[in-house]
Write a structure and sequence with these properties.
six-stranded antiparallel β-sheet, three-stranded antiparallel β-sheet, Jelly Rolls, 42% strand, mainly beta, 3 helices
Length: 187
């Protein structure tokens, strides 16, 4: 920061699609091959192109990872699609510092935020443009696209929260979001 100088922010947020532009922005892409193990129907996976894009994440980390008192912001874009009758979704995670909360908000498309507490109780909230979601500490969360267009979701979380993907990779969620009779259902 330069004393008494007015300058532009290094990162801009496109208010139409919530994409981030500028430097430094982190990008992550997850293709079907990266996330195949999270889906129930492994036979269906084998019939799909392994490089099919399932989701991508953009994030701005203006402070070092693990900094107490800092914030990160990002977007997740989940593609429309299914593996069998299970919607494309993110891997899902707890926070490494499990008492850290997070906000999500719907920007584009239709989806579901799947939530699971440490006792493995699972619930879900509809995600749509303008929806706002508070994800408390000790809650695992994942997003699923239940619509026919991209699902874009904004997020803001503490810079010291971290991500624990391992627990979900090993134990999964206690419920799955499936398309049953043309609508999403937790089973």
């Amino acid at each position: 920061m330069k004393h008494l100088k007015i300058q532009r922010s290094p990162v801009e947020l496109d208010l139409k699609d919530f994409s981030l532009k500028g430097e430094p922005i982190n990008y992550q892409h997850r293709v079907l091959n990266d996330v195949a193990s999270i889906f129930l129907d492994q036979d269906a996976i084998k019939k799909m192109p392994t490089e099919t894009l399932v989701y991508h994440v953009q994030s701005w980390l203006p402070v070092a990872d693990g900094t107490s008192g800092g914030l990160f912001i990002g977007t997740s874009t989940i593609m429309p699609g299914k593996v069998g009758n299970e919607y494309f979704m993110t891997k899902g995670h707890f926070h490494s510092k499990s008492d850290r909360a997070e906000f999500y908000w719907g920007v584009q498309g239709a989806g579901t935020l799947i939530l699971m507490d440490r006792d493995r109780n699972t619930s879900a909230e509809e995600v749509y443009p303008g929806s706002l979601h508070y994800i408390g500490g000790e809650i695992a969360h994942r997003l699923a696209n239940t619509g026919s267009e991209k699902l874009v979701v904004g997020a803001c979380w503490p810079s010291d929260a971290g991500h624990d993907y391992q627990e979900i990779a090993v134990n999964g969620f206690s419920a799955r979001l499936l398309e049953i009779d043309d609508k999403p259902e937790l089973v």
